[in-house]
Design brief:
Length: 331
Amino acid sequence: MDVSDDATMRAVVLSGPGPVENLDVRRLPLPEPAPGWVRVRVEAAGLNRSELHTRLGFAEGVTFPRVPGIEATGTVDLDPEGVLAPGQQVVAMMGGMGRTFDGGYAEYTVVPRAQVVPFRSALPWETLGAVPETLQTAYGSVTTGLDLRPGQSLLIRGGTSALGFAVTALAKELGVTVLATTRSPERLAALKDHGVDHPLVDDGAVADQVRALIPAGVDAALELVGTPTLPDTLRAARVHGTVCFTGMLSNQWIVRDFYPIGYLPTGVRLTAYSGDAADLPAEVLQRFLDRMAAGELSLGPVQVYPLERARDAHRDLEEGRRVGKLVLRTR
């Protein structure tokens, strides 16, 4: 067990809602797992919009001070009941991590065993750290949210996000025709390089661009930007097509004065997706990692920051400065 003699660890602590200056690296006591919980030696922790919402004060039920992070990737350090062996590679996510109990922005975290998914891989930790929550959300959006089928067409609103890249990878596995948006023309090449069939610049009227390519509208659309673009995304879908609301890159997620007949195009279905660790089967995670190792799949670019640069990472996340997934390396 790689800890100091005084049994402490480094962790990023959010003192309360507000600016990035409320994030500080501190030394905390090494957490002890209760029965049914597992201590994970964290190697990498992916950043998510959820943690930005927590820092900005949008998340409900959060107590402070708090170690943020709704996911973590590393190895089992201690399972008091011996169910998981020390050294077993695992990911952990959701279920209150980083909100009601301390999360992944730390050298160690303690989580309920039910939120731990084991795997095996020789990929670098920073690559592995980009996977868990992004893959869980992408897989759930594609399967549960959209029920995407081989040969269909899919619009991804917010395609250069980490989640957008992950959904593209899963959709291309199914032989789906993918259209994906970016607000920055200079990022069109990144979408094309990642397998997007039709990269689109989001000028606010994406539906017109979509219907110029597919006059009847797409079979499915994934909304990752939020409520400001949702009406236009709905207009891009065909009759009996499905739009899944999964992301909130805009930090706006409430539709005010919602009048379904006026808001929803006739015959277009609106669904939503949010999930947890139980929604990512271990075999799906393992298959995805194996294909990544073989060079057959990618989650897109990974931007890596040491724990001490958590503030910089949050600035970049909030301002959308970087393409792909942002990851904290704890060691």
